[in-house]
Amino acid sequence: MRVRTDLNLLRLFVAIYDTGSVTAAATVLNMSQPAASAALARLRDSMSDVLFIRSLGGMEPTARAESIIHRTRELLAALDQEVLQKTEHDPASFTGIFSCCMTELGEVLILPTLLRHVRGASPQARLESVTLPADRVYEALRAGEVDMALGYYPNLQHPDVCRDLLFSHDLVVMVREGHPIKGECLTMEEFANAEQVAVRDGSRTQEMLDELLLRQKIRRNIVLRTSHYLSVSSIVAESDLITVVPRWLVERSTHGMNNRMVSLPFDFPEYGLEYFWHRKFDANPRSVWLRELVKSLFGSTHFNLLDTLPSTAQDESKKAK
Known about the structure:
This protein is α/β, with parallel strands linked by helices and 321 residues long. It has helices spanning 7-19, 22-28, 33-47, 63-84, 104-121, 137-143, 188-193, 205-215, 232-237, 247-253, 285-298, 311-320; strands spanning 52-55, 58-61, 97-102, 126-130, 148-151, 161-169, 171-176, 195-199, 221-226, 242-246, 259-262, 271-278. The strands form three sheets. It has a five-stranded mixed sheet. A five-stranded mixed sheet has the order 9-8-10-7-11. A two-stranded antiparallel sheet has the order 1-2. The longest helix is centred in the N-terminal third of the chain and has 22 residues, at 63-84.
């Protein structure tokens, strides 16, 4: 015969066995005496045994109670220690891998600062950055292949995916110092006529720009396409080509480069850089720790780029201001 009961009844059974009293057991378990008596009645019914009989020395266990007390203690101890005990993440002793999905731009902006703080808190940990096609990101999060995705992923709308905003940014034009374009804001004619570099790095940034230009019937004179943002600063610095890139990339890459920032001749809405994780890891201590670190480092309405620059570049930027 299969006996069905609940864990609280088993805890009451052990407490009565240890104290020899229903009243004392109720006190130990923070229950009322009537509730403990009612629970004991249910336990006796489920076990088909009275379990305890009254004696001058208190509640004396029956043979059935004596036969199951040891195994009951083991069962409750195993549940408390291996199942019910709340686990915690100890950064100092963690030796595993934190894996993040991000684009090339995300690596440039986020990875140096994230690595510094992860290694500072977890000197034995490893940090891994991977780039995945947009249609693979959800499955990687669900399977635990990556702990989080950071970037602009407008199609990552699955109900099991959680998200939070880090910061917002926009697009600007990068030109070299001494370029024939002199103003701080391009005219529509200058934008249409200037020879441009377009970047296709797998992110949605240029796709958003192309969609806006198509809707507004604005053309671009693209003479060079590249798959990497990191090369465009040098290309622009050594030519009359211009390029449309995220503002923070210009702010970061102009240090030591002969380039400057120019505004677009049309409105381009700010867009958010977010971080994403799968719902099944929402309470995972390691995942919670990493998310809280990322939020503390990069979470703001408008991200402060200077916080991620090397100290020498910060000094140069402050002097320029």
